[in-house]
Design brief:
The protein is an alpha+beta fold and 553 residues long.
Length: 553
């Protein structure tokens, strides 16, 4: 029968929501059939794989019909529509019948082409003691983080933010049963993150966020509370700030078993459609979308935004254009969240101070981070093809362009451009040049207004300390992300569920992709309008206070 409720859903972005739900169902069915690392398709509440499984169309939830779990979900969440997982027909709770829509049915038919026909739940991957029957113990020992992914249970995959508090107990129970504890004991603020299927790009950025001193203080001091946020109370909207609040609560809960960030993943699917699905993604792109989302959900539309994102990463670049004829200089100012630096393909980079020696031979240096920054801020002569209008000469003239930094952010992120894209995919390549980077960084030489020789205070105010490094191993189309983070004066490697203590020398020997530095002297404005100075290492009392407050609600 036709249904006005399904038609209303279709007209309110229902096509994209249905696509996400179908993509989730298809991937889990494929994963179950091919012994993939994806968790099996089953009821999120009782793990039953009966033929009458239904998926909610308003969130990522799969429930069984016979035991009433899907009906209970629809009633509790006041959701209206669902889809039979295997028969691919819609059900309306208001009409109390199966309904249809020509447009949505056509979408289902197009997606079904090329997919294996499934008339009943696959049964070849029944698990015993958290291990696949067809999986031997030797493979389990070789890949700890893959073992964590193979054994994720579906109980955790209800992606609505309002369910986060209810799912915390389930997350703990599931993780203890299926995922090995990999974090060193007795360390508060370190916790592994489960890989949900090619989501290492997300996990490495979330670890960098968690150990960002300003973001840590902002969320642990309850400046954004998931339980009072108005956005999270509206089922049709997502709030990435609430998702970060959940992650901080979980990481600082004292639990050692890995956390499953399924809510964050689904929220990113809805906020940025390009991340929907389980394909490999770029960590830098995820970071920028996540920061834009947190800003959108906590900031203002004013010209000057004091949201936590701008107080962390907000800086200003100056672009000076000097006329080669009259010497007049015009300046423009642009905001930035990060600085992208070119990485040379070989192990040499042009000297930023001189284009040649007295014999006419080009000078070059090894491509250190400082040399890459110097190349970024080096004066560049623009030729006749790039002539610009000089307001003083009133004609187009050749000019010299130079970038500098007008205002430094509290958190400075360098993006080393290691992925060289080409219109011809065969010519695209990853640049694996090793670029040494320092632990302490002075940004004074790259400012628009240089400090005077005797100004020691200016130099101190522009000092930064390294606190996180994101690395990528492998090729462009087939690789893996991990991150190093500094916590309590120690360095740790975060590789999805696996957390291992490491040394500073190992961090500095890595081929960094994203480098995160924190200002040694920084202030940020709290939500109440008062200022405080974050420290590089966390104040342990903060998470205990917050957890007690939230568990008492």
């Amino acid at each position: 029968m036709a249904c006005s409720h399904l038609l209303e859903f279709q007209n309110n972005d229902g096509v994209s929501l249905l696509s996400i739900v179908l993509q989730y169902i298809d991937l889990t069915i494929k994963g179950t059939q091919h012994n993939s690392t994806l968790p099996p398709l089953c009821c999120f509440d009782c793990e039953d794989r009966q033929p009458r499984l239904h998926a909610c169309l308003h969130c990522i939830y799969v429930g069984c019909w016979e035991n009433g779990h899907i009906q209970n979900h629809w009633k509790e969440k006041e959701h209206v529509l669902g889809i039979d997982v295997f028969r691919r027909v819609f059900y309306c709770t208001i009409c109390r019948d199966y309904v249809y829509s020509n447009l949505l049915d056509q979408l289902i038919q197009e997606r079904n082409e090329g997919l294996p026909f499934v008339s009943s739940p696959p049964s070849n991957t029944i698990k015993e003691n958290g291990k696949n029957e067809h999986q031997n113990s030797s493979s389990n020992n070789n890949n700890i983080h893959e073992n964590g992914n193979n054994n994720l249970s579906k109980n955790n995959h209800n992606h609505t933010t309002s369910d986060a508090k209810e799912n915390n107990h389930n997350d703990e129970k599931i993780s203890k049963s299926f995922i090995p504890i990999t974090i060193p004991p007795g360390i508060l603020g370190m916790r592994g993150l489960a890989n949900l299927g090619n989501t290492c790009f997300m996990n490495c950025i979330l670890q960098a966020f968690v150990h960002n001193p300003i973001m840590r203080d902002y969320f642990l001091e309850n400046n954004h509370n998931q339980f009072v946020c108005q956005r999270s109370k509206r089922e049709t909207e997502v709030c990435l700030a609430c998702e970060m609040d959940i992650i901080f609560q979980q990481v600082y809960s004292g639990k050692q078993n890995p956390f499953i960030p399924n809510h964050m993943l689904f929220s990113m699917w809805k906020f940025a459609n390009s991340f929907a699905g389980y394909e490999q993604q770029d960590a830098h792109e995820f970071m920028m979308h996540a920061l834009n989302g947190i800003h959108a959900h906590t900031g203002t539309t004013d010209n000057v935004c004091n949201c936590v994102v701008h107080q962390m990463f907000g800086g200003t670049l100056t672009s000076d254009l000097t006329c080669s004829s009259c010497g007049f200089t015009s300046s423009t100012h642009d905001p930035f969240f990060d600085i992208s630096l070119d990485v040379p393909k070989n192990h040499l980079i042009k000297n930023a101070e001189s284009n040649g020696d007295e014999n006419g031979t080009e000078k070059s240096n090894t491509p250190t981070l400082l040399n890459c920054i110097s190349a970024f801020t080096r004066a560049e002569r623009l030729g006749q093809k790039e002539m610009s209008m000089c307001s003083k000469c009133n004609t187009k003239q050749e000019s010299i362009k130079q970038l500098s930094i007008k205002s430094l952010p509290n958190i400075l992120c360098f993006h080393l451009k290691r992925f060289e894209q080409s219109l011809n995919p065969r010519l695209s390549q990853k640049i694996n040049t090793f670029v040494p980077f320092p632990v302490t960084l002075d940004m004074s030489p790259y400012l628009s207004t240089k400090n005077s020789p005797g100004d020691s205070l200016g130099g101190v105010m522009n000092q930064y300390q390294l606190f996180s490094v994101v690395n990528h191993i492998g090729k462009m189309d087939n690789g893996h992300y991990s991150s190093y983070v500094k916590h309590m004066e120690n360095w740790f490697k975060c590789d999805d569920t696996l957390i291992t203590k490491t040394t500073l020398s190992q961090v500095l020997e890595s081929k960094g992709y994203l480098l995160f530095y924190a200002k040694t002297n920084m202030d940020f404005i709290r939500a109440q309008g008062t200022k405080r100075t974050p420290t590089i290492d966390p104040i342990i009392e903060l998470p205990e206070k917050k957890i007690k407050k939230e568990t008492s609600r």
